[in-house]
Amino acid sequence: xxxxxxxxxxxxxxxxxxxxxxxxxxxxxxxxxxxxxxxxxxxxxxxxxxxxxxxxxxxxxxxxxxxxxxxxxxxxxxxxxxxxxxxxxxxxxxxxxxxxxxxxxxxxxxxxxxxxxxxxxxxxxxxxxxxxxxxxxxxxxx
Length: 142
Hints:
By secondary structure, the protein is of the alpha+beta class. The protein has one helix at about 1-25; strands spanning about 30-35, 40-45, 55-60, 85-95, 100-105, 110-120, 120-130, 130-140. It contains one helix and eight strands, in the order H-E-E-E-E-E-E-E-E.
């Protein structure tokens, strides 16, 4: 009886370890709806063959933002560009179970350090400037 319990425990431990590694190696590539429901962000390689990932605004769900411009950008030469297509996450590389890189908030015209962590069908996006941080969760869409 004790031997069967030991075997069952060993099998359970192996299965949990396999499940845990599958979760931490999950790709964050895909399309995500932002926490405010206004946009879809597509996370994909920054360039063909690149290991780094970028998140670009691929679509606005709010029709009033359809032609939004990057008016708060600190670089005056970029303030007239449309927001659809710009990278708001860049150079994301795996760092354990998360991805780290850089981010840009068009609402604030501010760059930040980004940490992106997959959680099931969501991405936890944490942005920090100095000691001030903000975290949002985006939901994967098909």
